[in-house]
């Protein structure tokens, strides 16, 4: 009986003392920084609701400030872009199949659709932008009433709710940009991994 107890205890001690070695060997070293692959700064291309010289809303693909390589701990080596100084941050959830109607952007703001989908159309043009929530769900809405007579229509065609965030830009300042072309940006133009 003593021999069985010693054997069981010995096995338990062996397992217990070798367990930290097994765990240490299988876990990554979290104290060491492993930089991501070298990333090349890219332009940030955004579908933008803006206005024409005749004060009508239009959809354009803009190139905003280039993405640069971050030195911020936790995202060091990732690509980032300073979007603007926000005046607020608002979370929204919109029911499935919702029709937002004809409206102007209330302020110049970033709108980031994290899930769901939005279709933006114009009352005086056949232009449309189909925005899918997620990686390419960021747009700039700058067709405020001061610059656009009628604004745009937004419908949410998804069978699920659309979720996102609006980020009004302080002072309604439109960020510096280059117009790439009329119409929405393509998925390829918005792909920052290119």
Elements, N to C (H/E): HEEEEEEEEEEEEEH
Structural class, from secondary structure content? Answer: mainly beta
Q: Looking at the structure, what is the overall shape?
A: globular
Strand order of the largest sheet: 5-12-7-10-1-2-13
Question: Spans with pLDDT under 50 lasting ≥5 residues?
Answer: 1-29
Question: Span from first to last CA?
Answer: 70 Å
- Secondary structure: helix percent: 10-25%
Kindly describe this structure.
It is a single chain. The chain is mostly beta strands and 194 residues long. The protein is built from two helices and 13 strands; from the N terminus they run H-E-E-E-E-E-E-E-E-E-E-E-E-E-H. It has helices spanning 2-26, 187-190; strands spanning 43-51, 57-66, 68-69, 79-80, 90-94, 98-103, 109-115, 117-122, 125-132, 138-141, 152-156, 162-168, 178-182. The strands form three sheets. Strands 5-12-7-10-1-2-13 form a seven-stranded mixed sheet, with no helix packed on it. Strand 1 and strand 2 form a beta hairpin. The longest helix is centred in the first third of the chain and has 25 residues, at 2-26. The model is unreliable at 1-29 (pLDDT under 50).
Features:
single chain, 194 residues, mainly beta, four-stranded antiparallel β-sheet, 2 helices, 13 strands
């Amino acid at each position: 009986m003593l021999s069985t107890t010693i054997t069981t205890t010995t096995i338990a001690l062996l397992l217990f003392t070798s367990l930290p070695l097994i765990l240490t060997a299988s876990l990554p070293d979290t104290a060491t920084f492993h930089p991501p692959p070298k990333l090349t700064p890219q332009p940030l291309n955004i579908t933008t609701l803006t206005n024409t010289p005749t004060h009508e809303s239009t959809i354009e693909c803009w190139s905003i400030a280039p993405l640069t390589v971050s030195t911020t701990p936790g995202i060091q080596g990732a690509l980032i872009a300073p979007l603007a100084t926000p005046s607020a941050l608002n979370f929204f959830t919109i029911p499935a199949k919702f029709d937002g109607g004809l409206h102007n952007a209330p302020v110049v703001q970033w709108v980031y659709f994290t899930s769901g989908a939005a279709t933006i159309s114009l009352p005086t043009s056949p232009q449309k932008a189909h925005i899918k929530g997620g990686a390419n769900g960021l747009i700039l809405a700058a067709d405020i009433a001061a610059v656009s007579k009628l604004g745009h229509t937004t419908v949410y065609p998804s069978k699920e709710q659309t979720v996102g965030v609006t980020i009004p830009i302080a002072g309604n300042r439109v960020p510096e940009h280059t117009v790439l072309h009329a119409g929405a940006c393509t998925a390829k133009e918005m792909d920052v991994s290119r």
